[in-house]
Amino acid sequence: MKCSLCGLEYDENAVSCHAACPLARHCTVVCCPGCGYQTPDTSKSRLARSLRRVFGINHAPAPETRGHRCCLRDLATGKTGRVISVDTDNEAVAERLLIMGIMPGCDLTLVQRRPAIVVRAGYTELSLEDDIAKAIVMEVPA
Amino acid sequence: MSHCAGNGETCHDDDNGVIVLVGNPNVGKSVIFGALTGRYVTVSNYPGTTVELAEGRLPDGSVIVDTPGTNTLYGNSDDERVTRDILLSGERNLRAVVQVADAKNLRRALLLTSQLAELKLPVVLAINMVDEAAAHGIRLDSERLSPLVWIEVVPMVATRGEGLDRLLQSLQHARPLKRLDSYTPELESAIDRVEMLLPDDLPARRATAMRLLAGDTELAQRFSLNGALSDIQAEIATRTMRPVKSLLIEQQISAAWRLADEVMTIHRHQREGIAWNLSRWAVHPVWGWPILIAVLFAVYKLVGEFGAGTLVDFMEGTVFGEWINPLATRIVDAALPIPFIHDLLVGDYGLITMALTYGLALVLPIVSLFFIAFSILEDSGYLPRLAVMLNRAFMVMGLNGKAVLPMVLGLGCDTMATLSTRMLETRKERLLTTLLLALGVPCSAQLGVILGMMSAVGPAGAVIWAGVIVATMLAVGLIAARLLPGDRSPFILELPPMRLPRISNILIKTAARVEWYLKEVLPLFAIGTLLLFALDRTGALVLAEQVASPIVVGLLGLPAAATGAFLIGFLRRDYGAAGLFAMSLAGELTAQQVLVSLIVITLFMPCIANLLLIVKEFGVRVAVNVAGIVFPLAFAVGGLVNALLRAFGVAF
Ligand SMILES: Nc1nc2c(ncn2[C@@H]2O[C@H](COP(=O)(O)OP(=O)(O)OP(=O)(O)O)[C@@H](O)[C@H]2O)c(=O)[nH]1
Ligand SMILES: [Mg+2]
């Protein structure tokens, strides 16, 4: 994290105020070790996290999905990945996706997740329901 | 000859051969059809605008047919079947096929091309929307594509008329397509085997065989080969572990994509302009809602306040109230001083004082403005985005967001919207949507009158009205979804780009709709008035008022005179609403009575035409059931609201 007052770059997980303070476990504020300036750590606050989700702003994707496989629904918004497979028993769904150009090897960008999933495939924008997006397995570049 | 230009009826003047326009949804087929024939068919910016065939004539006199958009020839929704039938049935003598493609989506277009190749018909490929593709930095080399598919390829910008002449010329040189795909040997032998089962004189045997393999039970029944067919399908499926349809499409797709990538160059990356940002905001989890409310508010301002307020006041109060009606009365009384004629034309239920006044003064200004607002929404591309916003609510009712399109179209005309349910995939969805349309979606004319009456009940009344209607629809949808057999189809909807609506299209579309209103609705108003006049003359109206009194007066707490409005409401509910509007303007209804009568008339069946269309699309039984649910429910909900309003002593 970079302090917005003095510009010092520091590791927000190792700041001394958290190491010493008994309330640190639920504390959502970090203090800059250089100047003491307090910054809210939005990744720690549940409220901030859900607000970000509502507004469709993503924090950094969870580390385990980076360079790994995940389903389209769990892709970070704004991220592009490559379709690996479409795992659905519903033939109608598989076929519709195929026709719209969603098949293994093609690139998809997740535009938003709510109120319904919207993806971009080439020059086509598509809206899908959650269950379908869960069935599309993606590989996200590291 | 000219009879062919008429209302979608087929011309049996096919000797010269018919030309068919096909293509993916929303690629501009109807724009091209309009430009070539001079006949207007609805053009809107969402997939699924055209749901039935439209016929017209080219300058040289040959017949051309516009079809519903389809992504494959193997689709199974009702609108896709319409396209399948004209291409495969062999009933029409087809001379050529014009495939219209979206230059931004060449891959998907070429999938359809490769399926068309199996028809062995002469084809011309029109690559439309070259302007939008260029804005995205996509360049298509049509000179290179043409020899690769053996047919003429015409780049076009249909909305600006570019390429039309070349398209007409190249129709003279239409040739059969090159086969683009090659199938695995086992698939080929399966196609051959099915082909053997088909009659020899069928024109598109191979294409029909492929469609049968892809699983079209209706077609299989027509050739009565369900058993033999499923054997072949099962054989392939066990050998390859995949359904035949997917195998076919996959092999076609890979060929199509290879070809598309060969002729397409992307020399600049997508420009994310205003349209893209608007598109994002319109479906944004947060900003999407204020935008939705702003859109509704703007429509209300234009239609409800300006139309139903200012314009109606002027037309009703001044034009008809001070000029036409007094003048007509004087002329009639001077020329034909017979009481019967007086009453027939300018009496309480007079053709001029009632039918014309309601039709032209109360409803026409409102529907015209509504049609304008509606056309703008249709052409901007907002409607599919509304479907994204409302998807969740619709899932509760056993539908998916796609059903938002017919429901919103119902605000224009419920009958057209019932036809548009063809774009939905399952019969269950079509039935549910038809029922909900008949029950609770007020059409433009009625909506306008309702907005006008709202002023009597104020914002609180408006909220109660909307709440009751939405709650009734949700409840009925919820229950009907559980009772009706079948499934909801999965929600996959393409969002077309947001586009700046073209004023010419909006004016033409509005004019076409206003003409429809004047031609089809006004005569019904006249019939309704005549009916009321006859009932009034014979004393039957008084009788009806007495018979209906337990319901109208007892249950709903309305004056007995409202019976007349409900009676004509059976014919057209907006006409019934206009009758109630007139009563409320005359101060004959209290605010509670206005609210109750509004709710009842909103929940009525839209009109006779709607009922007849339901008969045509789904059969008499469904129509009777729908009517049997809607009418009693309308009175029951009205009675309930009346009782609640009284019990809680709500006043406005
Ligand atoms: N920019 C641009 N827009 C076009 C062009 N041709 C058509 N459009 C727009 O594309 C939209 C769809 O046009 P339609 O003619 O209704 O398409 P369709 O193929 O008949 O669609 P369906 O009947 O739904 O299958 C409209 O908003 C047109 O204004 C074009 O060449 N350039
Ligand atoms: Mg069309």
Walk me through what this model shows.
The complex is a heterodimer of chains A (142) and B (652). Chain A is of the alpha+beta class and 142 residues long. Chain A has 2 domains: 16-55, no CATH class; 63-139, Ferrous iron transport protein A (FeoA) (SH3 type barrels), CATH 2.30.30.90. In chain A, 21% of the residues lie in helices and 25% in strands. Chain A has 4 helices and 8 strands, in the order H-E-E-H-E-E-H-E-E-E-H-E. The mean pLDDT of chain A is 79. With 652 residues, chain B is α/β, with parallel strands linked by helices. Chain B folds into 3 domains: 2-176, 3-Layer(aba) Sandwich (Rossmann fold), CATH 3.40.50; 185-266, Orthogonal Bundle (Helix Hairpins); 288-647, no CATH class. Chain B is built from 27 helices and 10 strands. In chain B, strand 4, helix 3 and strand 5 (122-128) form a beta-alpha-beta unit. In chain B, helix 17 packs antiparallel against helix 18 (414-420). Residues 1-11 of chain B have low confidence and may be disordered.
